[in-house]
Write a structure and sequence with these properties.
about 80% helix; about 300 residues; globular
């Protein structure tokens, strides 16, 4: 796994370098993002869920994720209260601190470390977080930006997200016992480009802000630590062991979701802060995972 992690980090560096030299620009970043969101990630999700063995006791995975994000939201809310930050930065912190990036980081890590079975477990874990992100965190972002949000808008966020429909399709195929000889090879084609697209996009997203390193570094370390603690607590309370416990611990410590950048832009929150926070949290998380693999 160590060699695979190092290869991942190197490819992220390639994406960062290509953006820095101007070979890939904002338009390319949008194109890669669309291909990833609408094609590669849905294919990976459907394939993983359609071929997985899913039992009733696995409901503990989304329940543990829900407990983690609720805990992170409370911690972030307490933090901004104590810090006394202005609304734009306070909203950006809560939105980013309470979320985690499953699709761009959690999926490839679980796929490399635990294969299709581990990925299918992680998709179930990520389900609750994704719904929470697109509803509660989106609503909090709008509130801090003093915008309006309606139940209809929240429903649209879910309905318009390919991730949501991919999970529904994967679960439906699994329930029906479909193992189409044509469908799975078709899904394998876009899924094969998943790792390349996601790693390049991560590298292009990074922004280096040396003046904010102490702040971003401290927040990134706090998020990872709090996430691990909450993940451990959830796994203990729900009696998770083995692969399921690994999924919860790795998932709970993930850096903030990239979607929170879009939320901050839409609601006029402190987008620069969110980008800086994520840019520090991603390499810190990958470094800690690499050290864990070495030890």
């Amino acid at each position: 796994m160590l060699i695979q992690l190092l290869a991942m980090i190197l490819m992220v560096g390639v994406g960062f370098g290509l953006r820095r030299v101007g070979f890939l620009g904002p338009q390319d970043q949008q194109t890669l993002g669309k291909l990833l969101t609408h094609l590669a990630i849905p294919a990976v999700i459907i394939k993983a869920l359609a071929t997985a063995t899913i039992t009733a006791d696995l409901i503990a995975l989304p329940l543990s994720a829900l407990g983690v994000v609720l805990g992170l939201t409370l911690i972030a809310g307490l933090g901004v209260t104590l810090l006394g930050w202005e609304r734009s930065r306070a909203g950006a912190l809560i939105a980013s601190f309470a979320s985690f990036e499953g699709g761009a980081i959690g999926y490839p890590l679980m796929l490399m470390a635990k294969g299709e079975e581990g990925l299918s477990r992680f998709v179930l874990f990520d389900l609750a977080q994704a719904v929470y992100l697109l509803t509660v965190i989106y609503a909090l972002s709008a509130w801090f930006g003093q915008g309006q949000v309606t139940p209809r808008r929240l429903a649209q966020n879910l309905i318009q997200t390919p991730f949501f429909w991919a999970i529904m399709a994967g679960l439906a195929l699994n329930l029906l016992g479909e193992r189409s000889l044509l469908l799975l090879p078709l899904l394998q084609i876009p899924a094969a480009g998943f790792l390349l697209l996601v790693l390049l996009l991560l590298g292009m997203t990074f922004r280096v802000d040396c003046s904010g390193l102490p702040l971003y570094g401290g927040l990134a370390l706090a998020k990872i630590t709090c996430g691990l603690g909450l993940g451990w607590l959830a796994s203990r309370l729900l009696g998770l062991q083995g692969l399921e416990q690994t999924v919860v611990l790795l998932g709970a410590a993930l850096p903030p979701s990239l979607l929170t950048i879009l939320f901050c832009q839409e609601h006029h929150l402190d987008t620069r802060f969110t980008v800086g926070f994520i840019s520090m949290a991603v390499p810190l998380y990958l470094t800690m995972i690499t050290l864990y693999a070495v030890l």
